[in-house]
Amino acid sequence: MAFIPFVAQAQTSTILINDVSTIITSVSKKDDDIEVLHNKDVLIVDGVINKISDHIEVKTDKTIEGKGKILQAGFVDTHDHLWQVDIRSCGNEHNLYGWIRDCDLLPAKAQFTKDEAFAAIRTSTYDLINTGVTTVMDWNHTMTRGQTWGGLDALQQSGLRYVMAFNPSTDDTFNKDAYKLKSAIDKDPLGHMELASHPAIYMEATAKKAVELAKELKVSVNFHYLENRTDDQLEQHTKVLKRIGADKVPLILNHVVHPTDDEIAWMKDIHAKLTHNALSNMRLASGVMPLGKLHKAGLTVGLGLDGAANDNADFFTLMKATVGLQRASHEDPTVYPSYKDVELLATIEGAKVLGLESSVGTVEVGKQADLILLNPNTSNMGATWDSVAQVTLEAQPRNVEMVMVAGKILKENGKVIITDEPLSALLAKNKQTVERFKTKYTKTKGDAPF
Ligand SMILES: [Zn+2]
């Protein structure tokens, strides 16, 4: 497929979002409240929020009507595996270990090609734009070279802001791609890079390689950590992380469902950032992250859709599940996070996890215009008691009327408008890939680790 890199707008452009009824800024106020503005104009110049005021008189290239609508920062998806659109609904009765063994390792068995990876990852980006995600962290797996480069092409064509994680192998020839990838991503104003691996005793050499490469490339490392109850015992996550020096580099830890008090204190000491993947933890029967305890310890946490371990890409369902899992497991409607806290987790806290909080995550002058506009005039959210709860508890992707990243509109009038690759062609390619994957699929009984 043709590679046409997405380039952020270079020419001067001025967009006015006119008379917005409600702006949820994701700026924290005293008493755990969140700032909500009403009836404001928002001016965007060259992809940056230039002014928020009662009335702005200016000649614009484009005006968007905000009356009756809700404007907020785009969602930050801090943990995802976009190629996994090709293993949705695979291994539906497995826990984490059975699912990884039967479904997640298929691209390695099947030699995922560049075109296949491109189609899968580009399809996922449509879904993300549709639900209002503007920044995605794609833990790419990079099991094949095709997966690396097809993945980068797809992210760059999507128009999304992205963090792409390269997963080294024991083959240093393969690892040379990490340097090439860094150089390609550094040229893209929307792109960032991380190194990824898994902190298990049987993968210690590659996990160490990820840390070494991260030091050289000056990027963060990104690991899954304590997802299943048996991880510490069987894979020795914490011991491995300490042995490979992961605490000496900026560290992002995904899931953290089963930490001990000592591990919580250690994560705080080394300033680790965390991601919470509620829908994935439900699907794989992993357990419930002790979110309140981690928050109380002062750890920063963002939200992640986590690929096919979620089976869809609906950020509103993710927010609702994040609140609901904690309330249900504690039998307490006042536990952290509240319906307002989860709006922060979905935006500015996620931006902090990825180190992007100075440019995205809030609606403030000087920030990048990574914004979404919701139309609440629908049956599912038409009546208003509380505008934040309207978003975090009521809304659905269909309410996301407009999505922009750095002022570039990716969804308008409820339709994803970036059409470099027709969705029908991508879906046809994905169907072919799934049929090919099925020939390598082995359905096993039980969930024991490898
Ligand atoms: Zn994951």
Account of the 3D structure:
The chain is an alpha/beta fold. Helix content is 35%, strand content 23%. The protein is built from 16 helices and 17 strands. The strands form two sheets. Strands 1, 2, 3, 4, 5, 14, 15, 16 and 17 form a nine-stranded mixed beta sheet that branches. It has an eight-stranded parallel beta sheet with strand order 6-7-8-9-10-11-12-13. Strand 15 (400-405) and strand 16 form a beta hairpin. Helix 3 runs parallel beside helix 4 and helix 3 (114-131) crosses helix 16. It is globular and about 60 Å long. The chain starts with 13 loop residues before the first strand and ends in a 12-residue tail after the last helix. Mean pLDDT is 93; it is low at 1-10. Bound molecules: zinc ion (ZN). The site of zinc ion has 6 residues, from loops. Zinc ion (ZN) binds next to loops.
Q: What structural category do the secondary elements indicate?
A: alpha/beta
- Which blocks of ≥5 consecutive residues have pLDDT under 50? 1-10
CATH class category label of the largest domain? Alpha Beta
CATH architecture of the largest domain, please?
Alpha-Beta Barrel
What is the name of the CATH superfamily of the largest domain? Metal-dependent hydrolases
- Count of DSSP E strands? 17
Average per-residue pLDDT, rounded, comes to: 93
Helicity, in percent? 25-40%
Distance between the termini: 37 Å
- How many domains? 2
Tell me the overall shape: globular
Major β-sheet annotation:
9 strands, mixed
Cα-atom radius of gyration: 21 Å
User: How many helices in DSSP terms?
Assistant: 16
Task: Give me the CATH fold name of the largest domain.
Answer: TIM Barrel
Bound molecules: zinc ion
User: Roughly what fraction of the amino acids lie in strands?
Assistant: 15-25%
